[in-house]
Design a protein that fits this description.
- The chain is α+β, with helices and mostly antiparallel strands.
- Helices cover 29% and strands 21% of the residues.
- It contains 19 helices and 23 strands.
- Strand 3 (82-84) and strand 4 (91-93) form a beta hairpin.
- Helix 11 packs antiparallel against helix 13 and helix 17 packs antiparallel against helix 18 (518-533).
Length: 588
C-alpha cells in the first residue's frame, strides 16, 4: 500500500497526523459532577473522534483504493473474507467463517456467514436501510471487477499475478474488453451457492491466505455500481456492509463517518465505543499541533521543531506514542525518460544518499536507514545491512561518468515531485549531488503536491512527457511477505510507476512466488534484492529509510495504536473515547 503512507499511509507517504482518528486512555472526573456530566453527554453528544489529515481520500472504491489515506476508510466501510488482527497481525475470520484449500494448494473454498446486510445510509436523515444480505456472488463480482482492464485498478495488476484468469482480463486491451469476458467464466472465482466462494489460483501461492484480507478481494454491490456509475461511491449513494457509514466527504474540508449499529457485535474488530469519526483536512502540521494543544483534536503528529521539547516535557509522557509502521520510503526513477532511463545514472543517484545522515538531519533520528526494499519484519527479507550498495560516493561518481556525465557535465535538468512536507528530502538529495557528483543543485526542479495528486501524476498510465523524472513515495505492507514488496511494487508484471521493462530479475521474482520451500524462498529474495540494489543492480528505486515516528494522543483516547494498521487499514471499532473527560477538558 502506498504510504504518505501508507500504511500507503501507504503509505503510504502519509503524515503521522494521518493516523488521526483512532486512540485514548481513561481520564477520571470526580464525584457527582462526573455522574451528571456523563449522563448529559450521552443524551446529546455522540462519542466522537476529532482528527486531521493533510491528504485527501482519492477513492472509497475497494477495487481502486491504493493508498493508506483511502484504504483506512475502505477497511471500515467494507468487510471481506478475512481480517487482520489489530494486536497480533494474524489473519482472522470475517465474512468467511471457515475455509479449505485443495491438496495441490491452488483452490481455496471460503464458507460465508449469513447475517450481514448491504446497507444504504442517508446522511440527510441519519437513517440506514438494509437492502439485502451479502452473498458469495458479491465477492465474485468484486474480484472480477478488480481484474477488469477497463477499471484500471493498481491492485488488479497484483491480483493478476496470482488469481487464475485475472491475468487474462486485466491484460486485455481496454478497447477489446467486454462484459462477457470480464464477468463470465474467465476469472477463476465462483459461487456454487450463496454461502460459498471458490478462488482458483495460477499456482500454489503460500502467501495467498494472508492476501485474503485485502480490500481488492472484497465484495461489491453490483446493482448500485451499475445504477450510479462513478457517483456510486459518494455519500447517500454508496452501499456498504462494514462497521461504519459515510456521512460526509467534502474535498479540502473534512470527512465524517458514523457507526453502523446494525452489524453483529463480533464484526467491529474490537470493543471500542466510537460512534463518529470527524477528520478535518489541514495541510499544515503546526496548525494541527496547535489545535491538539487546545484540545480541539484528539491526535496530532509532532512538528520537528517541537520534538525535543515534547520528549523532555513530562506533561506529554502519557500522550506520546512511538509508532513503527513498516513503511519504507524511497525516491522512484522513471525508466521511460532521460536521464534515469540509464542504469548508471540511477545507481549514481542512489549511492550519493548518506542514509544515516538523512535519518539524523532530515528525520531527526526517526527512522532506520534502508539500502534494499523489504523491511526486516517481512518473511523473506534479507538482513538489513547485508544486501545493497548503500552510500558510496566513489562508486556514484564512477557510475555517473559511465552514464556519460563525468563530473555531472551535460547532465540535464530533472523534475522531481515530492509529496507535501517532503521538500527537504529533495534538498538533501540535491546537496549530495553537488557534493559527490559535482552537479549544480538548480538542475533538480522540485514541486510539492498533495498525495493523491502525486499518485495520479506518477501513474504509469500518465504520458511520459507529463511524468516527472523522479519522485518521493513510500510503501507499507498489504501482507507479510517479501513478494508484496519486490513482486507487487517493482515487478514488470504489475503496474509499476517506474515503467520498468522486464529482465532476468522478474524470472527470479516469479520463481520465488511459486517456490514452496521457505528456505529456498528466503535465498531467492536475497538474490532478488542484490540484483536490484547491489553493485550491478538495476535500481528501479533508491530506498532511503524505514519509518519510525511519534504521535500524540489525548489521555481520553485509547486503542491499539502501536499494533493496528501495521498491515492494511486501521480498525475504528477497536478504539474508544472517554467523552466526559474530553468535554471537560474543553470546558464544555
Amino acid at each position: 500500500m502506498f504510504k504518505n503512507s501508507v500504511r500507503v499511509l501507504p503509505v503510504l507517504v502519509i503524515a503521522f497526523a494521518l493516523v488521526v482518528s483512532l486512540v485514548p486512555v481513561n481520564f477520571a472526573l470526580a464525584g457527582d459532577a462526573e455522574i451528571t456530566f456523563t449522563a448529559n453527554y450521552r443524551q446529546d453528544v455522540p462519542v466522537q473522534v476529532d482528527g486531521s489529515n493533510s491528504s485527501e481520500i482519492s477513492t472509497l472504491d475497494p477495487q481502486l483504493a491504493e493508498d493508506s489515506v483511502s484504504i483506512t476508510p475502505v477497511e471500515n466501510l467494507f468487510l471481506g473474507l478475512t481480517d487482520v488482527d489489530t494486536i497480533t497481525g494474524g489473519v482472522n475470520p470475517e465474512l468467511a467463517t471457515s475455509w479449505e484449500v485443495s491438496e495441490d494448494g491452488t483452490v481455496w473454498t471460503f464458507n460465508l456467514r449469513t447475517d450481514v446486510n448491504w446497507m444504504r445510509y442517508d446522511p440527510a436523515t441519519g437513517e440506514a436501510e438494509a437492502l439485502r444480505p451479502v452473498v458469495a456472488g458479491d465477492f465474485v463480482y468484486g474480484i472480477q471487477r478488480g481484474c477488469d482492464s477497463r477499471l484500471g485498478s493498481y491492485y488488479g495488476s497484483i491480483a493478476a499475478t496470482v488469481v487464475a484468469g485475472c491475468d487474462v482480463t486485466f491484460n486485455t486491451p481496454v478497447e477489446e474488453m467486454t462484459d462477457e469476458l470480464a464477468f463470465g467464466d474467465t476469472v477463476g472465482v465462483s459461487a456454487p451457492d450463496d454461502q460459498t466462494v471458490v478462488v482458483e489460483l495460477q499456482f500454489a501461492a503460500g502467501y495467498f491466505f494472508s492476501m485474503s484480507a485485502m480490500w481488492m478481494l472484497r465484495p461489491a454491490y453490483r446493482e448500485g455500481i451499475e445504477e450510479y456509475g462513478d457517483e456510486f461511491f459518494t455519500p447517500g449513494n454508496i452501499v456498504t456492509n462494514g462497521p461504519f457509514f459515510v456521512e460526509e466527504n467534502v474535498r479540502g474540508v473534512r470527512r465524517v463517518f458514523v457507526r453502523n449499529e446494525n452489524l453483529p457485535a463480533d464484526l467491529y474488530s474490537g470493543d471500542g465505543n466510537i460512534e463518529r469519526i470527524v477528520t478535518t483536512v489541514i495541510e499544515d502540521g503546526g496548525t494541527t499541533f496547535a489545535l491538539y494543544q487546545d484540545n480541539q483534536l484528539d491526535s496530532s503528529g509532532v512538528p520537528s521543531a517541537e520534538l525535543q521539547n515534547i520528549l523532555a516535557d513530562p506533561e506529554y509522557a502519557d500522550q506520546l506514542h512511538a509508532i513503527y509502521d513498516n513503511a519504507v520510503f524511497y525516491f522512484g526513477f522513471a525508466f521511460d525518460k532521460p536521464p534515469f532511463d540509464n542504469v548508471n545514472a540511477r545507481r549514481a543517484f542512489s549511492a550519493i544518499i548518506d542514509r544515516e545522515a538523512f535519518v539524523q538531519q532530515v528525520r531527526q533520528g526517526l527512522g532506520v536507514p534502508m539500502i534494499h526494499f523489504t523491511p526486516p519484519s517481512m518473511f523473506g527479507a534479507p538482513p538489513i545491512n547485508e544486501v545493497g550498495i548503500g552510500f558510496d560516493p566513489e562508486y556514484a561518481a564512477a557510475q555517473l561518468a559511465e552514464a556519460g556525465y563525468p563530473n555531472c557535465e551535460g547532465f540535464p535538468n530533472i523534475d522531481m515531485i515530492a509529496y507535501s512536507g517532503a521538500g527537504t528530502w529533495a534538498e538533501f538529495w540535491a546537496a549530495g549531488a553537488e557534493q559527490y557528483l559535482g552537479c549544480d543543485p538548480s538542475l533538480i526542479n522540485v514541486e510539492q503536491l498533495e498525495f493523491s495528486v502525486l499518485l495520479e501524476v506518477t501513474s504509469p498510465e500518465t504520458p511520459t512527457q507529463d511524468r516527472p523524472n523522479t519522485w518521493t513515495l513510500g510503501w507499507g505492507p498489504d501482507y507479510q511477505d517479501a513478494n508484496n514488496w519486490v513482486g507487487d511494487v517493482l515487478s514488470c508484471h504489475v503496474d509499476n510507476r517506474q515503467n520498468r521493462p522486464c529482465d532476468e530479475v522478474d524470472e527470479l521474482i516469479d520463481q520465488a512466488a511459486r517456490e514452496s520451500d521457505p528456505d529456498a524462498r528466503i535465498e531467492l529474495y536475497a538474490e532478488i534484492e542484490e540484483a536490484l540494489f547491489g553493485a550491478e543492480g538495476t535500481f528501479p528505486i533508491a530506498p532511503i529509510f524505514l519509518r519510525f515516528g511519534y504521535v500524540l494522543y489525548k489521555p481520553w483516547y485509547t486503542g491499539p495504536f502501536e499494533t493496528d494498521a501495521q498491515v492494511g487499514g486501521a480498525h475504528w471499532g477497536a478504539y474508544s473515547i472517554d467523552m466526559a473527560a474530553k468535554l471537560a477538558a474543553r470546558g464544555e
